[in-house]
Amino acid sequence: xxxxxxxxxxxxxxxxxxxxxxxxxxxxxxxxxxxxxxxxxxxxxxxxxxxxxxxxxxxxxxxxxxxxxxxxxxxxxxxxxxxxxxxxxxxxxxxxxxxxxxxxxxxxxxxxxxxxxxxxxxxxxxxxxxxxxxxxxxxxxxxxxxxxxxxxxxxxxxxxxxxxxxxxxxxxxxxxxxxxxxxxxxxxxxxxxxxxxxxxxxx
Amino acid sequence: xxxxxxxxxxxxxxxxxxxxxxxxxxxxxxxxxxxxxxxxxxxxxxxxxx
Lengths: 203, 50
What we know:
- The complex is a heterodimer.
- Chain A is α/β, with parallel strands linked by helices.
- Chain A is built from ten helices and five strands, in the order H-H-H-H-H-E-H-E-H-E-E-H-E-H-H.
- Chain A has a single domain (3-202), classed as Vaccinia Virus protein VP39 (Rossmann fold), CATH 3.40.50.150.
- Chain B is elongated and about 45 Å long.
- Chain B has helices at 2-7, 26-34; strands spanning 11-17, 37-45.
- The A-B interface holds A 33-37, 45-46, 67-70, 72-73, 154, 156, 162-163, 166-167, 169-170, 173-188, 190, 203 and B 1, 4-5, 7-10, 18, 20-25, 28, 35-50.
């Protein structure tokens, strides 16, 4: 193994820990102040339907930490299977479940098992069903060609291997399936000092 | 991201900037703007036949 690969793997492991810490912090302390807008304030900023926000459990709304609204273009239909990549506390997955209805299915995937437990509890509290699977976005724990719609919100930018994530999304989508994802992009190459700083990268 | 989607085989790739995205802290927002950081909504379709 080369020193470069070892360094990359070490950085990825540190980044994983920082991501787990940061988003757990938002979920556990939604009253806190973070460098990004979160909770209902952020959701309303991104034009989430207020009826959805009223219907979703308060905990899921308060812990929302997305960067946009993938539901503006998701067009989820009753009966569809939806993947929420990086489901967090579950607001997007719960909205997807409400749209897909009882004949549909929503699969959340999250790195953090605690968040998986949280999203399932939040979904149950809202009368919807979300199955959350612990896993990495570079190896999505979903079979080939089973998803009608993939959504994600502010998650893929956290990966060092974005191409692999996109290939995984392609793999799990059915032929004719679609994705609607919001994420952070940068017009300029980030400096190495930013890339090597897990706190900045996780931001 | 747009290019990655196309190169991975997705079709009908579309993107639109999330108009009201910003960081809470002005210092973070200023740093983000200096790198051209923005939030974008992407949509794409896996072709029905591949």
